[in-house]
Amino acid sequence: MKIDRTQRRPDFGFRFARLALLVGTSVLLAACASSGEHVTGVMQITVKPGETGTCQSSPCQVSLVMPPGTGTYEVTGNEVKIGDFPAGQTVSLGSLFGSNAIKIVGADVPPAYVYIPRGM
Q: Which residues is 62 bridged to in the sheet?
């Protein structure tokens, strides 16, 4: 019995493309994740710049440790302004209902990431 190796299964290219997309997405997510510690909480969570946190409930009361300095910094969540907060304090960002990339505008610190499940 002779096997024809010139023919490939028609779904091989699709499987390869799907695998490449999965690997690429995983690498991209890893690159976007912060390099700090990972914290978890239920109903509330406190993160620092550079940390990643997971809250096990939605909504989640999120607090942020502001970097040292004087005056105030603007804080955004997913590029939307949350408010202006004093430097050097732990501040409440309120109850958040979804995942957020939290940035402190004007401070030379990495963003904090908070993952919050939807529909709980």
A: 45, 94
Supply 42's token pair: 């239920």
Contact 112, 64 (CB under 8 A): yes
What single string gives the DSSP state of each residue in 1-35? ----TT---TTHHHHHHHHHHHHHHHHHHHHHS-S
CA atoms within 13 A on the CB side of 108: 0
Q: Scanning the structure block, which residue is given the tokens 């999965």?
A: 22
At residue 59, the pLDDT reads: 93
pLDDT given at position 2: 62
The three-class DSSP label of residue 59 is: coil
| Chain-centre distance for alpha carbon 18 | 23
Per-residue pLDDT for 117 more than 50? yes
d(CA 109, CA 103): 8
